[in-house]
Each structure stands twice: as structure tokens, then as C-alpha cells.
Amino acid sequence: MATPSIDKHALDSFHAHLSQSKRVLALLGAGLSASSGLPTFRGAGGLWRSHDSISLATPEAFAADPSLVWHFYNYRRHMALQAQPNPAHYALAELARKLPGFQCLSQNVDGLSQRAEHPPDQLQLLHGTLFELKCASRRCDYHETNFTDPVVPALAIPTGGVDPTSNEARREAAAAQDKGQDLDISDVKVPIPSISTKDLPQCPKCNAHLLRPGVVWFGESLPASVLKNVDDFIDADAGIDLIIVIGTSAKVYPAAGYIDEAREKGARVCVVNMDTNDAPASGWAEGDWLFQGDAATVVPELLK
Ligand SMILES: CC(C)NC(=O)[C@H](Cc1c[nH]c2ccccc12)NC(=O)[C@H](CCCC/N=C(/NCCC(=O)O)S[C@H]1O[C@H](COP(=O)(O)OP(=O)(O)OC[C@H]2O[C@@H](n3cnc4c(N)ncnc43)[C@H](O)[C@@H]2O)[C@@H](O)[C@H]1O)NC(=O)OCc1ccccc1
Ligand SMILES: [Zn+2]
């Protein structure tokens, strides 16, 4: 039975087009993983503690305060490891197995599409992943896959053991401990220790630099292999039949630019978003679809 909120007529016309489509793109954003319990980038006003998440996701922030940036990424690794892929992640993986001409362009670094066993050659990780670590030096090519949580003991998320300075933090620590919960360090009221560089992840190859998360920071270029895979798919003569834009505010480039590039290659655009105001940058065109709702319920209906 179709999810009540979905417009039947729109759903039927979408299904008709999808069934005719040979080459399909999907652009994935944080909204895809929202119902897996992961905060979106702009959720909570885009703040982590008192910091603008975007400003923490920069080489400059890491150079200035690697302890703070590692607390940020260790926290997001911890949250992502605690989370589970939702039905939308699985539906996208299923479509990839059925449709060889389907490519998912993911802005998400949470590893949930991979854990939904999305075929790896049909998943382009535009902004990397939280679970790759690499040397912070451009002159060292060391990198490793790493799911250790905490990534180093010093970054253990405080569980009541911290020496909270404020009585309130002490009360919260005790309450969290009673419930056996972690303290939510995305809350600025929860004190986090500044970790000395020697206790942060070290590069075992050059032994001269820290390891950093294998994500693309603002101001850094996307992985060349991924850019090539995407451009080869988009530039193919066969054109593109459809692009499905799921749970993204489409404000970060070059990722957001792929919507218009696909449109120029003949694609019809289908947007799935909890909030109808987040239209593609280039606005709506005749024939587009907008399905408002939770990606975890809407996407499985669309890809049925
Ligand atoms: C802010 C923006 C204007 N800035 C940029 O785009 C910059 C600069 C720039 C480049 N070109 C431009 C052109 C114009 C303007 C600016 C630029 N781009 C870059 O710096 C890029 C790199 C960008 C990548 C940055 N890294 C990320 N992530 C990894 C790190 C990390 O994660 O920590 S970006 C990160 O933020 C973005 C967050 O966006 P969303 O995922 O969409 O999340 P958001 O919270 O915004 O929205 C969620 C949506 O879901 C909806 N939703 C919520 N719940 C649900 C639900 N349940 N169901 C459905 N929908 C839901 C909401 O309504 C909402 O619409 C994602 O891309 C995410 O990956 N690099 C580069 O250009 O390099 C150059 C270069 C070239 C050669 C050589 C050297 C340099
Ligand atoms: Zn190194």
C-alpha cells in the first residue's frame, strides 16, 4: 500500500519513467541517513557544540586545533557506527543490482550505503568516508581503513568519568551514567578535554605527521578517480534518463552542480526531501517530481 502522503498520480508517472530508464543517477545527502539517527549538516543550525560544522571541516581548522577536529570526527564515527542503514539505503542498493546503468553519487561519509551492501562500483563517494584515515601530510601517501571506536583511547567519549567542572555537568554525567549512556559531546555544556598531539592518531609510515579523517574538506578537491567516474558517466553519449536527488540541500559544489549537468544530458529530476523549500539550485522544470517526506519511507516506494 503506497505511503499515504505520496501522490498516486505522481508515483505512477515516476514508476512509468523509471521502468523506461536505462541510465539513472542519484545524488545523496545527509537527509538519506536522518532516520538512521544521524544529524544532518544543517540540522541543529549546522552547529556542533558551538562550532559551525562547515568551519570544522577544513584543513585550516585541523591545523589550528587537531584535538577539537578529532573530537568532531571521532564523535561522528561513533554515531555512524551506532547507526543502522535504513530502508532507503537498501532500496538504492537493490536498484543498483537490478540496473547496471544506475550510479549513486553520495555526499555522505557515514558508511551506511556501504553497510547496506550497495555495489561499490555503483557508489561514488564524492566526499570520502569517516572510516578511511590518511596522513595529514601531502608528501606521505599513507592511508588505512579504520573502524576503531574511539579512534584512539584519548578520544573516548566521556561517560561520567570526566571531571566535569560544573555541578550541572556532574549531574548530567551521573544521570547519563545511571542510564549507561554516553554524554552527548555535541552539547557544548559537556566538557571535552584538549588532547595533546602525541595522543592523537599518528601516521605509522612517516612518523612525522598526524593521521586525519579520509574525508574531503572544504577547499580540497574531490578524489580524482571519483571525479573521473562521474564525468565519464555524465559525458557518455547515451545521455541520462533520470536523476533522483535525495535528502540534500544541494548547496555544496561540485556535488550540487551534477543536477543541472544531468538535466542538460536529458535527465528528468526527481527530488525527495522532508522540506519542499530545498529545491534544486536551478529551480524546478516541467516534468520534475517532488516527493515530500522521510527518505526512509519515500525512496522504497519510489524504487519498488
Ligand atoms: C558551502 C558551499 C557554498 N561551499 C562549497 O561548495 C565549496 C566551495 C565551492 C566550490 N565551488 C563552488 C561554487 C559555488 C560556491 C561555492 C563553491 N566546495 C568545496 O570546497 C569543495 C569540497 C566540498 C566538500 C566538503 N566536504 C563535505 N563533507 C565531507 C566532510 C565532512 O562531512 O565533515 S560537504 C558536506 O556538507 C554537505 C551537507 O549537505 P547535505 O548532505 O545536503 O546536508 P544538509 O544538512 O545541508 O541538508 C540535508 C537535507 O536533507 C533534508 N532532510 C532532512 N531530513 C530528511 C529526511 N528524513 N528525509 C529526506 N530529506 C531530509 C533537509 O530538508 C535538507 O534539505 C554535504 O555535501 C556533506 O558531504 N572543494 C572544492 O571546491 O575544491 C576546489 C578545488 C579544486 C581543485 C583543487 C583544490 C580545490
Ligand atoms: Zn605520513
Automatic annotation (TrEMBL):
Pfam families: SIR2
Residue span(s) of domain Deacetylase sirtuin-type: 4-304
GO MF annotations in UniProt: histone deacetylase activity, NAD-dependent; metal ion binding; NAD+ binding; protein-malonyllysine demalonylase activity; protein-succinyllysine desuccinylase activity
InterPro entries cross-referenced by the UniProt entry: DHS-like_NAD/FAD-binding_dom (IPR029035), NAD-dep_sirtuin_deacylases (IPR050134), Sirtuin (IPR003000), Sirtuin_cat_small_dom_sf (IPR026591), Sirtuin_class_III (IPR027546), Ssirtuin_cat_dom (IPR026590)
Keywords: Metal-binding, NAD, Transferase, Zinc
GO CC, one annotated term: nucleus
Active site: 127 (proton acceptor)
Gene3D superfamilies per the UniProt record, alphabetical: SIR2/SIRT2 'Small Domain (3.30.1600.10), TPP-binding domain (3.40.50.1220)
Binding site for Zn(2+): 135, 140, 203, 206
Record PANTHER family: NAD-DEPENDENT PROTEIN DEACYLASE SIRTUIN-5, MITOCHONDRIAL-RELATED
Family the entry assigns: Belongs to the sirtuin family. Class I subfamily.
Entry protein name: DHS-like NAD/FAD-binding domain-containing protein
Originating species: Neohortaea acidophila
Lineage: Eukaryota, Fungi, Dikarya, Ascomycota, Pezizomycotina
